């Protein structure tokens, strides 16, 4: 296999594009904390450039280790589903030993980089890895509650970014955590709707109702999108942002909810796809709304 093809297989194995979205969340958390706390609470290396390098590269590597471990765990199941059957392990582009090696290297180097920021950043990275790989991944074939469990490690990135700067837990990292936690419910359930038939081939059932693609399922998805609106206002309630965030978060939340409500009305896969893509747009927008508000308006 050529070097180019091998590199591409590593990118697929570690889900590099997904890792990039995770890092955007961590970056937004870091910048928000920096603009909120100022130099008084600065942790890390003392250099903004080095802090961001360690945060983003370390976060990408730990996320890559989590994604790779997931593919090792589910390599036999991946052969059964259309969306995963061409991954590197099922088609033989990588061996399990090679995959484990990649995971170990990514995890060790990534954790070391996060440790350069502070102890808590490294701890959060390890916690996200363990809960995603050893709790969420095996639960996916046992219960739809796996989505709730998976939302915990999935909500760590913005909190990790904030703590990478401040070096301590508190209301600000907690608020960012809960916004991303609630966002993941309509996000993952929209994916589960679009991929429902394929997931069932692999023995997964991840929709929030056993009634399948039904009104009840769509109602719960829409309800989770609606609940996201007040959660997105947590930073304002805690006096961390101003009216710009209130207006922007309310508008973004309403548009996101309307996408979920459209799915409730139609129960069509195309509207579930619209909601899924809307979720990818919503998250970085709302997170950087907080950053912009803090930098320009407060």
Indicate the multimeric state.
single chain
Overall geometry: flat
Characterize the main sheet: none
Averaged pLDDT, please? 93
Q: Which consecutive residue ranges, at least 5 long each, have pLDDT under 50?
A: none
Q: Helical segment tally?
A: 14
- Helix/sheet category: mainly alpha
How many angstroms does the end-to-end distance come to? Answer: 54 Å
Strand content: under 5%
Question: SSE layout and pairings?
Answer:
Elements (H helix, E strand, L loop, with lengths): L2 H12 L1 H22 L10 H26 L1 H4 L17 H20 L3 H21 L6 H9 L1 H11 L4 H24 L1 H6 L13 H18 L1 H4 L5 H24 L2 H29 L1
Task: Tell me what you see in this structure.
With 298 residues, this protein is an all-alpha fold. 77% of the residues lie in helices and 0% in strands. The chain contains 14 helices and no strands. Helix 13 (243-266) packs antiparallel against helix 14. The radius of gyration is 19 Å and the shape is flat. It starts with a helix and ends with a helix. The mean pLDDT is 93.
Which terms would index this structure?
14 helices; single chain; 298 residues
């Amino acid at each position: 296999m050529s070097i180019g093809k091998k590199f591409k297989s590593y990118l697929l194995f570690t889900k590099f594009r997904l890792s990039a979205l995770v890092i955007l969340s961590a970056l937004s958390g870091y910048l928000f904390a920096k603009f909120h706390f100022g130099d008084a609470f600065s942790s890390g290396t003392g250099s903004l450039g080095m802090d961001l390098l360690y945060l983003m590269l370390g976060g990408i590597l730990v996320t890559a280790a989590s994604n790779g471990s997931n593919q090792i765990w589910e390599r036999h199941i991946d052969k059964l589903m259309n969306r995963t059957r061409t991954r590197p392990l099922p088609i033989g582009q990588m061996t399990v030993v090679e995959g484990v090696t990649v995971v170990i290297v990514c995890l060790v180097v990534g954790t070391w980089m996060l440790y350069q920021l502070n102890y808590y950043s490294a701890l959060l990275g390890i916690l996200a890895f363990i809960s995603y790989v050893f709790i969420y991944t095996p639960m996916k074939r046992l219960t739809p509650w796996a989505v709730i469990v998976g939302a915990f490690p999935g909500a760590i990135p913005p909190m990790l970014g904030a703590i990478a700067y401040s070096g301590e837990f508190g209301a600000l990292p907690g608020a960012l955590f809960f916004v991303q936690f609630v966002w993941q419910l309509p996000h993952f359930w929209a994916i589960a709707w679009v991929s429902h038939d394929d997931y069932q081939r692999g023995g997964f059932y991840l929709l929030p109702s056993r009634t399948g693609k039904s009104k009840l399922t769509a109602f719960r998805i829409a309800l989770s999108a609606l609940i996201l609106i007040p959660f997105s206002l947590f930073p304002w309630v805690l006096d961390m942002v101003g009216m710009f965030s209130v207006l922007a978060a309310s508008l973004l939340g309403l548009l996101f909810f309307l996408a979920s409500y459209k799915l409730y009305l139609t129960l069509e896969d195309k509207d579930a796809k619209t909601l899924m893509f809307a979720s990818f747009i919503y998250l970085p927008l709302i997170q950087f709304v907080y950053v912009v508000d803090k930098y320009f308006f407060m």
